[in-house]
Specification:
The complex is a heterodimer of chains A (15) and B (141). Chain A has no helix or strand. With 15 residues, chain A is largely without helices or strands. Chain A is rod-shaped, with a radius of gyration of 12 Å. In chain A, 0% of the residues are buried. Helix content of chain B is 70%, strand content 0%. Chain B is built from eight helices and no strands. The longest helix of chain B is centred in the middle third of the chain and has 17 residues. Chain B starts with a helix and ends in a 6-residue tail after the last helix. The chains are: A little secondary structure (15), B mainly alpha (141). At the A-B interface, loops of A face helix 6 and helix 8 of B.
């Protein structure tokens, strides 16, 4: 069964 | 997430100056329950670390460091993502929460990120985040 675990990620914040 | 939130609220109570190790321990145990635990725990921790209340933020950093020492690989891989690292970076940046966070909180956040570059050399995103902070002059050697 598929997991809801979210493996996606964002980009590094540009400050 | 409700149970995690309750332990964390108690562990980071700004009216209490001493660490509440019982609650910190319970929070860490709860992180390992269920697949979503690390993700939820880090989201809650980020919010507390960004608190303008110094004591609440410092307690949250203690909880974070205890989790890093006690929780497993799933917690480590989640904290090494930009999603969470960005939340820590926001505390250091004057464009975000840096204007409200105290110097004490900022220096502990910097120490935490630096220590992870040493303990988790294989986590490229942690190295990237630290290099970026150095390049921006936010972290001085």
């Amino acid at each position: 069964t598929a997991s809801f675990h979210d493996d996606s990620d964002e980009d590094l914040l540009n400050i | 997430p409700g149970q995690l939130q309750r332990w964390l609220n108690e562990a980071t109570d700004p009216s209490v100056s001493e660490e509440n190790w019982e609650c910190i321990q319970r929070f860490c145990e709860q992180v390992n329950v269920g697949t979503e635990g690390p993700l939820f725990a880090l989201r809650l921790l980020a919010h507390k670390i960004q608190s303008p209340q110094e004591r609440e933020a410092l307690h949250a950093l203690t909880v974070l460091e205890t989790c890093v020492n006690n929780c497993g690989d799933r917690f480590h891989s989640e904290m090494a993502k930009f999603r969470f690292l960005n939340e820590l970076i926001k505390v250091l940046s004057p464009k975000y929460y840096g204007i409200w966070s105290s110097e004490k909180v900022k220096s502990r956040v910097t120490e935490v990120i630096f220590s992870w570059t040493v303990w988790f050399p294989q986590e490229v995103k942690i190295q990237d985040a630290y290099q970026m902070l150095k390049k921006q002059g936010i972290v001085k050697e």
